[in-house]
Amino acid sequence: MKVKKILTANVDFSYNYHWNKIADHIGKYDKKWHTRKLFGKVYKLFIIGKKYDVIVFNYDVRLAFLCALFLRIFCFKKNAIKIVFITLLIDVSIFNKKSFLHFIFYYIFVRLQHKIIVHTKEEITIYRKTFKIIPKNKFIYIPYFYYQDNSIITTNRNKKKYILCAGNHRDIGTFVNAMSYLKNYNGVVIAGEGDRLIWENNNEVNIDFFFNLSYKKYKQYIADAMALVVPINNTKLKRSLGIIATFQAVSLDIPVIAADTFHLQDYFSKNDINYYKSEDSTCLADTINQVVKNYKASKNKVRVAKIKLYQYYTIDNFITALTHVC
């Protein structure tokens, strides 16, 4: 069987031996790739990409859209080059509430991509319904992977006694309300720029708020926490899944408390991490209290999740699945 020639654009898995044997990164041909503007990248991809069977994109929706459009319009073999786009697209809760052009852009975008890789099974149903996609194999679920790098984390430190809510697009309100019932515990919220307007001047006595922390500090806060809370609003399907923060906590034996939405349930069961009823601050407070009061059992529980993390959610497994799709 003929081996497909694969080009990766804005994601580079060349550090993986198996991927490196079958795929090239565009930086191999264009030394200025990372400094080019959008249309400069599109031009280079159009020139170089015509030599390949498959082009893989990650995150950059505009680049993938324009490249797919140019290749469809100007290449004589309309179906010769396949476009595979990895990761979640948008916050579907606001998809129909923005401008008409915004709607049209994404409506066309999903049709230009041959395959779109998502990281939860539920997204397949959500996106097919949202974008009115009939083919069942347009969206494909591939579990995300954990890239182990704890070298930047300080060791031999005294644990700080706080409960951490980390990441953008979280249901911070439910976490704050839960912590108001737990005055004996301290909380830390690490949020994004979009959360600053609402929470920067919050006067909660037992919660510290931080915004746009560096990756190093972000990981250190996870490492020093008693537990990580991943609060997600069940009625607003956010772009952020909480997978990366959860993987990081599990790798460090930090107990995880997550909303019972779909976002993490493909990865860990209730035997691995702790779930609470989404948007229920009382339930979250009770779950936090149970985790802390029974901390030895909570640590044993997360160690079960850690075994699963290292067994299933690896770069090799991810590459194998992605190669099959390509």
Q: Which fold does the CATH topology of the largest domain refer to?
A: Rossmann fold
Radius of gyration: 21 Å
How many domains, as an integer? 2
Q: Strands across the major sheet, in which order?
A: 2-1-3-4-5-6
Can you identify the CATH class of the largest domain?
Alpha Beta
CATH superfamily of the largest domain: Glycogen Phosphorylase B
What is the second-level CATH architecture of the largest domain?
3-Layer(aba) Sandwich
* Helix count, DSSP H or I runs of 4 or more residues: 12
Helix content: 40-55%
The biggest beta sheet, please?
Answer: 6 strands, parallel
Search tags:
Rossmann fold; alpha/beta; six-stranded parallel sheet; globular; 12 helices; 2 domains; 326 residues; 15% strand
